[in-house]
């Protein structure tokens, strides 16, 4: 799929991986709608890339429908949907203060997994009504998993569960949408230079870099964006999750 001239939506587009992806899609000629729960951040990114923005809580159906309607009015139904909205809330199943509060676990699942599914189902419904492109493709959905889906550490039960669910969505959704010409992929980044890692002590950052084999550094958001563009471009990428991690494998803790 050549993204030039096509409509795209990016959730979590106000910062980090989503912002880099919005920039890359716009540079490649896509008409980008930036969704973020932080309206000011979404607006700033959209202004920078010449796109449109919408405040969007991906866990809320009405909010997501409204954001999609705004994007549709500006650019038409999206053929590209990239979900980058997510949260990290570490905590042990049983910590010093007792069991993890159930609402803490549920919130991570709600944002990272349910929110991703919510955007996927609504975007796919729009894509299904589009005329197929020359190669029969109607759209592509790219979700954000994490290497924690396979390498989850102590204190990451909620996060790893949510991202494991995102990775597992890829194949059954791709199978369901295949007759419609809609592909579904997930990218599972390793340690990336994003706001989620900002503010960590130097010692922690040094350990993260030390465990990344090659390149011997943290990943860059722009590299995640390049992977999204590669997925859009290559029609054989479908139904799986790609690790983007410099061969790092997270230790137990």
Automatic annotation (TrEMBL):
The keyword Oxidoreductase applies. It comes from the Bacteria. This is Dehydrogenase with different specificities. It comes from Paramagnetospirillum magneticum (strain ATCC 700264 / AMB-1) (Magnetospirillum magneticum). Belongs to the short-chain dehydrogenases/reductases (SDR) family. GO terms for molecular function: oxidoreductase activity. Keywords: Oxidoreductase. Gene3D superfamilies: NAD(P)-binding Rossmann-like Domain. InterPro entries: NAD(P)-bd_dom_sf, Sc_DH/Rdtase_CS, SDR_fam. The keyword Oxidoreductase applies. SUPFAM superfamilies: NAD(P)-binding Rossmann-fold domains.
């Amino acid at each position: 799929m050549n993204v030039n001239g096509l409509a795209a939506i990016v959730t979590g587009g106000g910062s980090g991986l989503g912002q880099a992806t919005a920039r890359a899609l716009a540079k490649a000629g896509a008409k980008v709608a930036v969704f973020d729960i932080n309206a000011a951040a979404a607006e700033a990114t959209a202004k920078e890339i010449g796109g449109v923005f919408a405040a969007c809580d991906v866990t809320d159906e009405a909010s997501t429908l409204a954001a999609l309607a705004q994007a549709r009015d500006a650019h038409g139904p999206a053929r590209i949907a990239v979900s980058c909205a997510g949260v990290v809330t570490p905590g042990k199943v049983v910590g010093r203060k007792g069991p993890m509060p159930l609402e803490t676990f549920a919130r991570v699942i709600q944002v990272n997994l349910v929110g991703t599914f919510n955007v996927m189902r609504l975007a796919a419904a729009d894509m299904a009504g589009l005329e197929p492109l020359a190669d029969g493709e109607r759209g592509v959905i790219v979700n954000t998993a994490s290497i924690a889906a396979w390498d989850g550490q102590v204190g990451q039960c909620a996060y790893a569960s949510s991202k494991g669910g995102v990775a597992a969505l890829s194949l059954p959704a791709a199978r369901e949408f295949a007759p419609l010409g809609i592909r579904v992929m997930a990218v599972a980044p390793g340690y990336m230079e994003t706001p989620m890692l900002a503010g960590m002590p130097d010692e922690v950052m040094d350990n993260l870099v030390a465990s990344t084999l090659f390149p011997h550094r943290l990943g860059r958001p722009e590299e995640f964006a390049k992977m999204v563009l590669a997925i859009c471009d290559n029609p054989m990428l479908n139904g799986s999750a790609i690790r983007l991690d410099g061969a790092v494998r997270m230790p137990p803790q």
